[in-house]
Amino acid sequence: MASNASQSSFYVGYLPKMPASIRRFILPWILFLLVLVSASAYLLVQGQKGFSSGTFELGKLTTLEGDLLTSPVPMLRVYSPQDKASRQASQEILLIGFGKNGAQQDIAVWEEQAGHSLERHRVQLSGTLIYYNGKTLLELTEGKRSLGMIMEEKTPIEGLKAEGPVSLVGEIIDPKCYFGVMKPGHGKAHRSCASLCVAGGIPPVFRVENEVGNIQYYFLLQEGNVGLNQSVKPFISEAVSIQGTMQSRNNWNYLYIADLTNIQRLNN
Q1: Which of 57, 105, 249, 261 is deepest in the core (most CB within 10 A)?
Q2: What are the tens digits of pLDDT across the range 243-261?
Q3: For residues 174 and 204, is the Cβ–Cβ distance under 8 A?
């Protein structure tokens, strides 16, 4: 009898049926492992940062007409059809260069060819649109050839609106990657790429997210409209607090700081 009991508990993998004693031992462990794997997979997915819905219209050139603003950062102010006559601005689009470059070099070429400043002149520009979260950028994909037409009229445009001193916590990003070219375009994994974009002249942007998930964006500048591209490189993609004076115009914010002591790293 002992010999028969021992044989009944012995299982060979190619036999059609597993002995009951072995099945009772194994099945609970199989169910436990299935639940464990499923729960681990769910927690892993939930812990991942989602991809942004930013769009980069790669391969598609769009022509826009608007007022060129060269300071404090390169912008094209565009108007909706019903606002063209009244010049009530509908949107300001950030201009950036091809690759990891700002738009300043292309604008400098245009101004040299025109023989005068193009500030507030109405122009036609073609390029690749980038947009996300209510912000739009235009990459001057064809470089100096992106300029189609210059109109001699100059548009009176209001200056920045002073909002007062602020103290904010967030992350310094490069807007080209963040708003559509890379997904995601922020965080420490993106630091080296963002540093190259900012070093190439793309204006650094301070991304600030509040406790309910609303995000605001601020161009970082030193007083006197001095760019901070080289100065902020050590702080890119890190959690920092910045004290400065906020100004705004249309759909963008500008944060002016006195010097780099106004930027402080946060303890991780």
Answers
A1: 249
A2: 999 999 988 999 999 988 9
A3: yes
Cβ-count burial of 127 within 10 angstroms (0-12 exposed, 13-18 middle, 19+ buried)?
Answer: buried
Q: Does residue 143 come out as left (phi exceeding 0), alpha (psi in the -120 to 50 range) or beta?
A: left
What tokens were used for 7?
């044989």
How far, in Å, CA of 178 to CA of 217, rounded?
11
DSSP string for 68-112:
EE-SSS-EEEE--GGGTTTT---EEEEEEESSS-BSHHHHHHHHH
Q: Which residues contact 263 (CB under 8 A, 6 or more apart)?
A: 232, 235, 240, 241, 242, 257
CB atoms within 10 A of CB 210: 11
**Segment (H or E) for 146:** none
How far, in whole angstroms, is CA 6 from its chain's centroid?
Answer: 67
User: How far is residue 227's CA from residue 41's CA, in Å, rounded to a whole number?
Assistant: 45
**In angstroms, rounded to a whole number, what is the distance separating the alpha carbons of residues 69 and 95?**
9
| CA nearest neighbour of 201 among 265, 67, 106 | 106
Average pLDDT in the 12-36 region? Answer: 75
Residues in the chain: 268
Whole-structure pTM value:
0.77
pLDDT in the model for residue 251: 85
CA–CA separation, 27 and 166 (whole Å): 61
